[in-house]
Task: structure prediction
Amino acid sequence: MRAIPTDRGACPFDPPAGMADEPLSKVRLSNGDQVWLVARHDLVRQVLGDTRFSSEIDGGFLDVPLHAVQPQPGMFIQMDPPEHTRLRRLLTGRFTVQRMQRLRPRIEQIVTERLDALERAPRPADLVAEFALPIPSLVICELLGVPYAERAAFQEAGTRLLTLTGTQEELEEAMMRLGGYLAELIARKRAEPGEGLLDDLLDSGLSDEELVGIAILLLIAGHETTANMISLGTLLLLQHPDQLALVRQSPEAARTAVDELLRYLSIVDVGMFRRASTDLELDGQIIREGEFVTCSLAAANRDPALLDRPEELEVSRPKAPHVAFGFGPHQCLGQNLARLEMEIAYPALFRRLPGLRLAVPLEKVPFKSDMAIYGVHRLEVEW
Ligand code: HEM
Result:
């Protein structure tokens, strides 16, 4: 049995070589676990849309084997209905397009401030540290009511939780640290409520453990994902000056480009597992109860059945029904926020620094092949 493909040597912006070789095949993870790999758009949607492929699991890739779990309170990404539905419903209204649009002026202000800071920074500057990470971090902190000044207490632990190499002890320790900080923050909020989503949830009938779980989930999901899209998307556009010129053209062009960048880069790929809760049939193959399945969102998003010329980056093409945000009941809760941050950040960056360029050869850029969410660790830029 082949190992799950991980080699992006040929092109750092493409899915690992061999990912789409077979629509459905058994592969081995680095921890020795055997899982079904689903790599065709229609099959990926079938799996993610069917909750008999359960999300109540943990582990994978690390020393930690995949196993069924009793989800931690509040961590609804690891829950099935009806519990998943109960918790997600409390939040969906907070992340609608309209609600997110109210944040637009504040996000524009944050982006401008980060550009001011970037211009003052010594050159070459690290675009990740100065721009791509602080923007989603400031936004999600304000939205939740988590003090940004206290980010030392949660950013490092959050990164640790997404690292693919590490032991069970390291993971548990990071989770404890993050949970400890947020439990203490929620206790402070109970004593003196402030303004933010977590404050609003204090009286919604959730236990403190559930609130902590929700806070961990939103804080981690809200940070790393968008930060990676801003930095990796910038790098990709710098490699495609013709496409970059289109993004610069108008706010509408930038808005259209965002979904193509999401599709093309698919920064969340095979990191999300499901477990068959009963014997199930997929593409004529029986998946036995208890077997694990992972979906390659990157392969699905480059499926020729999804769109023409899937391997081409074409930022002005109409939005394809890509699965970069997943699909089905667990489809990304924060997608409207992520889109808004990107559609503000890219054009603002390229307008303010028209001469923006990489300060090191592409081969020297440290790509995040060691992380559950793809991106770059650093991006040294000049202008
Ligand atoms: C470009 C940025 C982002 C990408 C590519 C992304 C991708 C994803 C994907 C693929 C899933 C599905 C997981 C699964 O099915 O197991 C997901 C779920 C989720 N995302 Fe995002 N995400 C992004 C930004 C955000 C942001 C900014 C937030 C903050 C609010 C967020 C919050 C969540 C939550 C809470 C879930 C779990 C939803 C559920 O289980 O019902 N994400 N995301």
Remarks:
- The longest strand covers residues 24-28.
